[in-house]
């Protein structure tokens, strides 16, 4: 990159914004930048390269939007002493004020791959990454239908939701993905709610999946009500309720083990598995005896009369 004297101020109309489609619009960041510019002016110059009387804007699209929002008609840029593709590589590897989102990285890599014909190994070498990392980024952006990619770039959907939820859903069922996208744009869900919804979707039958996609917010609210009710019951019942629930589960499991033992404990069972059975049965029996003794001690402490005292008999 050239020296400090290559920082200059240029009119907006001299900018070539050919990489605007690779940047995500983040309303909160834009508002913060506008407030900063109104108070202190533009502090950090945008990055650009010169080409035939114009300047290709490499980095600083959010700053440009903030300056326009503040009524400015010029932007401070720092000219890079690099070719266009080298400038993109520099942007991808440098630590700037705002770390690029995964989809922004993917969009820039797509430019290097499609427009400049760099191979996976070449891109990987320039970025200090392996080929699989480059391929995953390209697969990510190629997997997203335009109806989903554009809302992400417009800041209506989070990059995280797109990469972790919508991409795998699009691969499995594109129509469900498109329908869900429309719904969560209209009525956004938190990251936690979206993860919960997707987990239920993956483990549900077609009928329930249709209900989830048709009313995602309602489904999440219903789950929350159920969870709140469950927590309320747990608080009401206290540790006693949890203990009785756990012991009932243990009894059900023991009954199930008793049924399956006929299949497992056959006469010719080898010594290794027979010994394992004895070890675990002994351990279970020991634990139950210890719990029973605890109960008997507490009863004795409470009454002062041994549990086997004749006076306890009816």
SSE inventory with pairings:
Blueprint: E1 7-11, E2 15-16, H1 27-40, E3 46-51, E4 54-59, H2 61-69, E5 74-79, H3 84-93, H4 102-114, H5 120-127, H6 131-143, H7 146-153, H8 159-172, H9 174-186, H10 191-202, H11 206-214, H12 216-264, H13 271-303
Parallel strand pairs: 2-4, 3-5
Antiparallel strand pairs: 1-5, 3-4
Helix pairs in contact: 1-2, 4-6, 5-6, 8-9, 10-11, 11-12
List descriptors.
13 helices; Arc Repressor Mutant, subunit A; alpha/beta; 65% helix; 314 residues
Description:
This protein is α/β, with parallel strands linked by helices. Among the domains are: 1-97, Conserved hypothetical protein from pyrococcus furiosus pfu- 392566-001, ParB domain (Alpha-Beta Complex), CATH 3.90.1530.10; 101-143, Orthogonal Bundle (Arc Repressor Mutant, subunit A), CATH 1.10.10. Helices cover 65% and strands 8% of the residues. Strands 1-5-3-4-2 form a 5-stranded mixed sheet. α1 (27-40) packs across α2, α4 crosses α6 (131-143) and α10 (191-202) packs antiparallel against α11. The chain is elongated, with a radius of gyration of 32 Å.
